[in-house]
């Protein structure tokens, strides 16, 4: 019959070994799974997309936005993460440039300039927008999503146009940023 002290000794050794194994395993598992919980691209930062001289009044231009893409375990720096339409405004307007996300607020397809360059159109389900980003038909739930621009000194010919790129919830009436 096993001695009581022998039993306690074996039980204690077994428990201590299990505890130490768990302590060592947790950081390892956390390390392996950490990419799954990593933050996304640099959305929310201001990026220089153009110079004021690159833009003509009433002629929207599309610019790519670069950011860090990350899959489960690998980070890809400076990859295209979205696009932005910049529209130069006439003199006297409240702001020299307006920025729209090129992601359609209906279901996320890329919004393009119509052939006559007078409207924006989304080819997926025919959403249509004015050059001011307002809806022109019943398909999109809201106008094109506007993006913040850092104040521009229009008196400087090579003034930079710096835009805060964000993504927004699709399919709803309000422009709600994704976190
Ligand atoms: S995604 Fe643009 S119209 Fe549906």
Molecular structure report:
The chain has 179 residues and is an alpha+beta fold. It has 2 domains: 4-37; 46-164, Rieske Iron-sulfur Protein (3-layer Sandwich). Helix content is 17%, strand content 28%. The protein has one helix at 4-33; strands at 46-51, 61-70, 75-88, 97-101, 112-113, 119-121, 128-130, 146-147, 160-164. The protein has a 4-stranded antiparallel β-sheet, with no helix packed on it. A 3-stranded antiparallel β-sheet has the order 5-6-7, with no helix packed on it. Strands 1-9 form a two-stranded antiparallel sheet. The termini are far apart. 17% of the residues are buried. Residues 18-40 have low confidence and may be disordered. Bound molecules: FE2/S2 (inorganic) cluster. Residues 104, 106-109, 122, 124-125, 127, 139 line the site of FE2/S2 (inorganic) cluster (FES). FE2/S2 (inorganic) cluster binds next to loops.
Summarize the structure.
The protein has 179 residues and is α+β, with helices and mostly antiparallel strands.
Features of the shown structure:
4-stranded antiparallel β-sheet, 2 domains, 179 residues, 3-stranded antiparallel β-sheet, 9 strands, binds FE2/S2 (inorganic) cluster, Rieske Iron-sulfur Protein, alpha+beta
For the termini, the CA-CA separation is 64 Å
Bound molecules: FE2/S2 (inorganic) cluster
What proportion strand?
Answer: 25-35%
Task: Output the number of helix runs.
Answer: 1
CATH homologous superfamily descriptor of the largest domain: Rieske [2Fe-2S] iron-sulphur domain
Number of domains: 2
Major sheet attributes: 4 strands, antiparallel
Integer-rounded radius of gyration: 27 Å
Mind telling me the CATH class of the largest domain? Mainly Beta
Strand tally is 9
User: What is the level-2 CATH architecture name of the largest domain?
Assistant: 3-layer Sandwich
Going by helix content, strand content and strand pairing, the class is alpha+beta
Query: Helical percent range?
Result: 10-25%
User: What is the overall silhouette?
Assistant: globular
Model regions low in confidence, pLDDT < 50 over at least 5 residues: 18-40
In the sheet with the most strands, the strands line up as 2-3-4-8
CATH topology of the largest domain: Rieske Iron-sulfur Protein
Mean pLDDT: 83
SSE order: HEEEEEEEEE
């Amino acid at each position: 019959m096993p001695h009581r002290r022998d039993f306690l000794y074996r039980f204690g050794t077994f428990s201590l070994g299990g505890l130490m194994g768990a302590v060592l395993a947790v950081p390892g598992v956390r390390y392996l799974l950490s990419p799954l919980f990593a933050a996304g691209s640099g959305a929310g930062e201001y990026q220089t997309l153009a110079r004021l001289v690159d833009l003509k009044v009433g002629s929207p231009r599309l610019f790519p936005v670069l950011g860090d893409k990350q899959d489960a375990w690998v980070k890809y720096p400076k990859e295209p993460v979205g696009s932005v339409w910049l529209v130069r405004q006439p003199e006297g307007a409240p702001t020299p440039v307006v920025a729209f996300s090129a992601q359609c607020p209906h279901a996320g397809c890329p919004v393009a300039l119509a052939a006559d360059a007078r409207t924006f159109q989304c080819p997926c389900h025919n959403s249509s927008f004015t050059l001011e980003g307002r809806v022109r038909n019943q398909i999109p739930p809201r106008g094109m999503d506007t993006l913040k621009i850092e104040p521009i000194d229009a008196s400087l010919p090579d003034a930079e146009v710096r835009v805060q790129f964000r993504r927004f919830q699709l399919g709803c009436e309000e422009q709600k940023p994704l976190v």
